[in-house]
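To the wet lab folks,

You asked to see what we're planning to order before we commit. Fair enough. Below is the target structure as C-alpha cells, and below that is the sequence we designed to fit it. If anything looks off to you, flag it before the synthesis order goes out.
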C-alpha cells in the first residue's frame, strides 16, 4: 500500500513537471497568420498551454526542437461540423448531433466524444480545434454550438453554448418566408419584452413599498436574450442574396454578432456584407450549383470576396472529410486567393469570428501549432509534429493502425496478425 501511494505521488509530480515544461521551436519558417506575415529562421517558445515568446533575445526552455527551416503554422480550425457527435453517418446509434424535437436550447456539447476515431484522423490534417454545430430537428433553431480542441482529453470542450445555429433557405415543403419570418419575430418579440422589462424596472426604482416579483425567463428566452446582448454568436446558414440582405438588415437593426454560413450569393451583396461587418463561412470547393439558391457559387468566390473586403472562413464539407481542409484552402490559392489569406481563412479568421483564443502565432494565444514536412497546401506534405494547448500529440490514427494490421507479415492467414 505504501509503495502504491508513493507511486501515485511520483506520478502526480511527474504530471506537474510535464505540464510546466517549456518548449522552444527554433529555425522555423513561421507563418504567423498576422500582419507580421512570414518570419524566417524564427523561434517560438511555448509554456504550459500558451505561446509566451516569439524570437526572444535569449532562448530559455526545457527542450529545444530544431525545425530545420520547415514551415510552422497555427493549428487549423475546422468550423461548422459535427466532430465528436457523429462516428458513422450510416449508423443511427452513433449520431448525437440532432433530435427531432430540438430547439434553440439544445446543447449537444454534453454528448461530445473526445475519443472519436474521426478526431485522430482530422488531427493528421493539421486540425487542432473545431467549432461544432448541431444538426437539430424540425425547427430553424438547430441548437447551440461549442468549441472543442482535438487533444482527445475529457476536458476538450473549451467553450460550450457559444453560438446559436439557425438554418434558412429553400424548403421541400412550405415557404422560406415562414422561416425567415419566424427568426424576425423571435428577435422582435424578445427585444420588445426586454425593453418593457427595462422600462418597468426604471418605474419601480426607489419604490420600496412595491413588492418585487421577478419572473424567471424561460430557457429559450435566455438564449435569445444572450444573442440580442451580443453574448452569443448568431450563426445562420443561408445562400440566396435576398436572404442574405434580410440577415444583414437584422444584424444592423439589433446590433447582432452574426456570421453567415454557405453564402453562395455573397458576391452579389459583398458591399453590404462589408458595410455591416458580416463575415461569411464558405466551402472553397463549391462550384456547381446544388439549387437555385447557389447559382453564383464559384471556385474564385474566396478570392473575389476577400479582395472586396469580406472576412472569409472555410468549411470542409462533411465532418469525416475535415482532414482535407488544407487542400480546399490550396485550391482557393490556385483560384486567385493569396497564401496568407488562405491560411487566415482556416486559422485567424475563424478564430476572430468565433472568438477562439487561437488561430495565430501570437504571444498569449493557445499553443496550437503544426510543423509541416513542406507546404501545408500541397497534397504531398504531411504533419511532422502537432501541439494542442502546448502538448505534443501523436499523428497516428485508426487508419494507420488498420494499415499496419493488414499489411504486417505474419504466419497467420492474411488480414490477421499475431
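Sequence we intend to order:
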Amino acid at each position: 500500500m505504501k509503495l502504491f501511494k508513493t507511486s501515485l505521488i511520483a506520478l502526480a509530480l511527474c504530471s506537474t513537471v510535464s505540464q510546466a515544461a517549456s518548449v522552444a521551436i527554433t529555425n522555423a519558417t513561421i507563418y504567423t497568420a498576422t500582419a507580421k506575415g512570414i518570419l524566417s529562421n524564427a523561434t517560438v517558445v511555448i509554456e504550459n498551454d500558451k505561446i509566451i515568446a516569439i524570437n526572444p533575445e535569449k532562448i530559455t526552455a526545457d527542450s529545444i526542437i530544431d525545425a530545420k527551416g520547415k514551415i510552422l503554422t497555427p493549428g487549423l480550425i475546422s468550423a461548422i461540423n459535427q466532430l465528436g457527435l457523429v462516428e458513422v453517418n450510416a449508423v443511427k446509434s452513433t449520431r448525437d448531433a440532432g433530435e427531432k424535437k430540438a430547439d434553440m436550447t439544445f446543447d449537444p456539447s454534453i454528448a461530445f466524444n473526445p475519443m472519436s476515431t474521426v478526431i485522430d484522423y482530422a488531427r493528421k490534417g493539421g486540425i487542432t480545434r473545431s467549432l461544432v454545430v448541431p444538426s437539430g430537428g424540425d425547427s430553424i433553431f438547430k441548437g447551440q454550438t461549442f468549441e472543442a480542441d482535438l487533444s482527445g482529453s475529457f476536458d476538450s470542450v473549451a467553450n460550450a453554448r457559444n453560438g446559436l445555429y439557425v438554418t434558412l433557405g429553400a424548403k421541400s415543403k412550405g415557404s422560406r418566408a415562414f422561416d425567415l419570418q419566424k427568426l424576425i419575430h423571435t428577435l422582435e418579440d424578445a427585444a420588445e419584452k426586454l425593453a418593457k422589462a427595462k422600462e418597468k424596472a426604471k418605474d419601480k426604482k426607489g419604490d420600496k413599498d412595491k413588492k418585487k416579483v421577478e419572473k424567471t425567463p424561460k430557457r429559450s428566452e435566455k438564449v435569445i436574450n444572450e444573442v440580442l446582448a451580443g453574448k452569443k454568436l448568431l450563426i445562420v446558414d443561408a445562400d440566396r442574396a435576398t436572404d442574405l440582405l434580410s440577415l444583414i438588415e437584422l444584424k444592423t437593426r439589433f446590433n447582432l454578432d452574426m456570421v453567415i454560413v454557405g453564402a453562395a450569393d455573397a458576391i452579389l451583396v459583398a458591399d453590404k456584407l462589408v458595410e455591416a461587418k458580416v463575415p461569411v463561412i464558405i466551402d472553397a470547393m463549391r462550384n456547381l450549383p446544388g439549387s437555385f439558391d447557389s447559382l453564383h457559387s464559384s471556385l474564385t468566390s474566396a478570392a473575389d470576396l476577400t479582395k472586396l473586403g469580406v472576412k472569409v472562413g472555410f468549411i470542409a464539407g462533411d465532418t469525416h472529410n475535415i482532414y482535407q481542409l488544407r487542400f480546399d484552402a490550396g485550391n482557393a490559392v490556385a483560384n486567385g486567393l493569396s497564401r496568407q489569406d488562405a491560411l487566415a481563412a482556416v486559422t485567424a479568421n475563424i478564430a476572430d469570428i468565433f472568438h477562439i483564443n487561437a488561430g495565430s502565432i501570437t504571444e498569449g494565444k493557445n499553443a496550437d501549432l503544426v510543423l509541416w514536412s513542406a507546404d501545408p497546401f500541397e497534397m504531398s506534405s504531411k504533419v511532422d509534429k502537432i501541439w494542442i494547448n502546448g502538448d505534443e500529440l501523436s499523428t497516428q490514427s485508426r487508419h494507420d493502425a488498420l494499415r499496419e494490421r493488414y499489411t504486417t507479415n505474419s504466419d497467420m492467414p492474411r488480414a490477421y496478425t499475431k
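Structural context that might help your review: The first strand starts at residue 22 and ends at 31. Residues 1-19 have pLDDT under 50 and may be disordered.

Thanks,
Computational group
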